[in-house]
Amino acid sequence: MRSRYTAFVLGKIDHIDRTHAPEISDDFNRAEAERTVAEVEWLGLDVRNASESGDSGSVEFAIRFRRDGQELTQHEVSSFRRVEGHWLYEGGKVSAKPPPRQVVKIGRNDPCPCGSGKKYKKCCGA
């Protein structure tokens, strides 16, 4: 994963193309990759988790980049397969934002959630 990120940073599109698994290499859009390299300022790679089982592995990572003046982060889990000692990218799943936190609003006259038996406004809400 680090080598692919570095290839994007340095504009080495041939490396990106070479590290695709054969079954997805036809889907690689070289023109789009070149446009991305030209339009993006890469800000960092954070590998959050990596696992390997025999000749297959996965990497969970986040990349930070700036595009059109806006700083963005992409979180992804990518699958790789080792073929003749080289790791090939099989695909990835871009994760959506985590679900928003659910906050329960406590009314002033509701019982206090601390269990005191008092109204919220007379206890923890004071």
Q: Using the CA coordinates, give the radius of gyration.
A: 23 Å
The termini sit apart by: 52 Å
Query: Average pLDDT value?
Result: 89
Task: State the share of residues found in helices, binned by percent.
Answer: 10-25%
- DSSP summary, beta strand count: 4
- The assigned structural class equals alpha+beta
Q: Looking across the biggest beta sheet, what order are the strands in?
A: 1-2-3-4
Using brief descriptors, characterize the structure shown.
126 residues, elongated, alpha+beta, 39% strand
Secondary-structure topology with pairs:
Blueprint: H1 2-10, H2 13-18, H3 22-25, H4 30-39, E1 40-53, E2 56-67, E3 70-83, E4 86-94
Antiparallel strand pairs: 1-2, 2-3, 3-4
Structure write-up:
The protein has 126 residues and is of the alpha+beta class. It has helices at 2-10, 13-18, 22-25, 30-39, and strands at residues 40-53, 56-67, 70-83, 86-94. It has a 4-stranded antiparallel beta sheet with strand order 1-2-3-4. Strand 3 and strand 4 (86-94) form a beta hairpin. It is elongated, with a radius of gyration of 23 Å.
